Amino acid sequence: AGALESERIVDGGQAAIWFLGPAHRPHRCEAGLTAVADASLEKKSKRLADQRFAMMIVDSQVHIWAADTPERPWPPGQAARAHQPTPLTAESLLGKMDAAGVARAVLVPPSWEGDRNDVVLAAARRYPDRFAVMGRISLKAAESREAFLPLVRTAGMLGLRFTFHTETQQKLLTDGAADWLWPAAAAAGVPLMVHP
């Protein structure tokens, strides 16, 4: 499998299928699952037990982030929400993934950094065979509607993620702020990851 090509517009669903890849299970006959009229159940079970199955493990949501600095500040009051006091870099995550046998990860920008995608997209550009992105975009910002298509067509971007589990976020669903998103995503074939 190769990297997503930046020059070509890729439907988000197709990109997700490429990134997640096939299940990497052996063909039925290689796994001893082809029906053989005279093979006993015991024989089949032994053959299956002797087979080694390979599996690609993809973590479907991992956060990486940069430090909260004056040059790149987080929204006020968000520092306490970070999972650890130091940034988690793409390279550090790759080490953890390799140790755990995880082949690929879908990066999701953490909410405590605000609606930004710079760190995760940079990681996906550096390691396109290991990372892809479900990005963030503000539902309330006026410029989001115009930024939507260029963002979702960015190399490495599979789609967008939204959270609606707090009272403030739930209002986005009832005050009309999210109304533009659903038809825009449907028309562009962009997958959405929604946390209710």
Describe this structure in words.
The chain is α/β, with parallel strands linked by helices. Helices cover 33% and strands 13% of the residues. It has 7 helices and 5 strands; from the N terminus they run ααβαβαβαβααβ. A 5-stranded parallel sheet has the order 1-2-3-4-5. Strand 2, helix 4 and strand 3 form a beta-alpha-beta unit. The longest helix has 11 residues. It is globular. The two termini are 33 Å apart. The N terminus is likely disordered.
Descriptive tags:
5-stranded parallel sheet; 7 helices; disordered N terminus; 196 residues; alpha/beta
Kindly name the structural category. alpha/beta
Poorly predicted tracts of residues: 1-10, 22-42, 48-53
Strand order of the largest sheet: 1-2-3-4-5
Order of helices and strands: HHEHEHEHEHHE
Oligomer designation: single chain
How much is the average pLDDT?
Answer: 78
Strand count, sense and barrel status of the largest sheet are:
5 strands, parallel
Number of helices: 7
Terminal CA distance reads: 33 Å
The percent range for helix content is 25-40%
In short:
By secondary structure, the protein is an alpha/beta fold. The protein has seven helices and five strands.
Draw up the topology in text.
Layout lengths: L11 H9 L20 H10 L7 E5 L27 H11 L3 E4 L10 H9 L4 E5 L8 H9 L4 E7 L3 H8 L6 H8 L3 E4 L1
Parallel strand pairs: 1-2, 2-3, 3-4, 4-5
